[in-house]
Amino acid sequence: MIGMHLSRLSEDLIIWSTREFGLIEFGDAFSTGSSLMPQKKNPDIAELTRGKTGRLYGNLTSILTTVKALPSSYNRDLQEDKHALFDSVDTVRSALEVFTAMLPELRINRERMEVATSDPNLFATDLTEYLVKKGMPFREAHEIVGRLVADCVTTGMSLNQIPLVELKKRSLLFDADVADVFDVRHSLSQRRAIGAPSPENVAAQIKRWQAKL
Fold first, then answer.
1. Mean pLDDT of the chain
2. What are the φ and ψ backbone dihedral angles of 21, each rounded to 5 degrees?
3. How many Å apart are CA 131 and CA 141, to the nearest integer?
């Protein structure tokens, strides 16, 4: 399970570090240059950690395969679990040690992240919730916003470029305050359910884990 979580986190970091995303950059101590492409920076540690998860899964599968046909109680076959167990413990310990050193050295591109979250069409769900909060059934709100999104795709417009008078043709519940929907900070502040990413929730989780660790 630890390997799986590390692998998924590695995948996130690798994707976010690509030129297409450009959200983070690995520290030089945890990446290498390409042997062929001078401009390339290889996320070695994240890739190796992701690869080690296959090894952990293999160890688990070997133990499960050994055990699956054994009768109850102890059997000498079970001595085969030692190699898989010790190797898995060593692998996970190494991965955690390296990750602990690597994460603080990540460089975060806040400006690029802000640009990535500024696409107005990302707020279609928020627009749906805007109507729901004003009393419209979710199914109806979902259909209205879905049609608006389809119109935007056809016309090349963004949701926040639709004039208020046009929005009112779809529903009289739309008003001038609809402009607030397209602010990412406002959007995040509304996400207050358990596990949601409001600043308050994130701060509480950071505090909780700092105390726990």
1. 93
2. -95, -55
3. 6
- Judge whether 138 lies within some domain: yes
Three-state DSSP at 107 gives: strand
Are 107 and 56 found together in one domain?
yes
Asked if 36 and 137 sit in the same domain, the reply is no
Tell which residue, 3, 105, 101, 85, has the closest CA to residue 48.
3
Does one domain contain both 57 and 18? yes
Expressed as residue numbers, the domain containing 47 is: 2-115
Residues 109 and 131 in one domain: no
Q: Same structural domain for residues 38 and 106?
A: yes
pLDDT band at residue 164, thresholds of 50, 70 and 90?
A: very high
Phi, psi (degrees; rounded to nearest 5) at 32: -135, 160
Residue environment code for 178-200, b if the CB has 16+ CB neighbours within 10 A, otherwise e: beebbebeebbeeeeeeeeeeee
130 lies in the same domain as 148: yes
pTM, entire model? 0.81
- 77-135 confidence digits (pLDDT tens): 999 999 999 999 999 999 999 999 999 999 999 999 999 888 899 999 999 999 999 99
Residue 165 to residue 78: CA distance in whole angstroms: 73
Beta strands in 61-182 (DSSP E): 107-108
Question: Could you give the CA distance from residue 53 to residue 51 in angstroms, rounded to a whole number?
Answer: 5
Q: Is the domain of 107 the same as that of 62?
A: yes
- pLDDT tens profile 12-68: 999 999 989 999 999 988 887 777 776 678 899 999 999 999 999 999 999 999 999
Residue carrying the six token digits 């406002």? 186
